[in-house]
Amino acid sequence: MKLIKEKNYEAMSRQAANIISAQVIIKPDCVLGLATGSTPIGTYNQLAAWYEKGDVDFSRVRTINLDEYIGISGRDEHSYRYFMDKNFFEKINIKKENTFVPSGIAKDIEKECKEYDRRIKDFGGIDLQLLGIGLDGHIGFNEPGDCFQKNTHVVKLHSSTIEANSRFFSSPEKVPEYAITMGMISIMQAKKILLIANGKAKEDILNKALYGAITPQIPASILQLHSDLTVIYSEE
Ligand code: GLP
User: Fold this and answer.
1) Is residue 49 part of a domain?
2) I need a surface site. Which of 74, 118, 119, 184 has the fewest CB within 10 A?
3) Catalytic (active site) residue 177
4) Nearest CA owner, ligand 1 atom 12
């Protein structure tokens, strides 16, 4: 594992964007696994700025996102599809049809899960997976539990996650109770993993995840087993 400590959010974002743009330059048709949340917003802004300058070209890149809330459509401003479009995809030259976010309104959600895994397999896996970390150690929406969930699956969100994510909604009651998330196989089979974390509040869970026991009670702890993990942390 490579741990990079940065002095502030801007430096963390710039460093993460550096690694992602290097990936795109080395392999222009790469598959990027992408994340939502407030942490990656600065990274996406930096990448968009470099695209504007002509330094990075996303025209052949394919992206696959980690997760989506169940019950809200991609046109809803609270959806992760909407988040990705507004914060990243609409600012760069990626082809919309090359961007994938699980559907939270699929009629047959089990089928959606299977097809999502198949799509990742057909892509030949993920070249670089960007991750944030939840306060309870979740990655994507893989919540703490009795075992690691292998495949894309439906998850009931923990009350602490609903509480943490309620800042994006008008009230905690408005946060969907269920989500669809990529499982640990697709994440762990990514060729490279880049985990970003920002703020003192994340320090404790990050330490447990990176140096403590590998346990499904702290889903991110499984990342210790990955052979190419980079973590960028800024406490500010
Ligand atoms: C959500 C997302 C995660 C993300 C987490 C942390 O629950 N599903 O992928 O890592 O939030 O978000 P933030 O970066 O806002 O702390």
Assistant:
1) yes
2) 118
3) no
4) 37
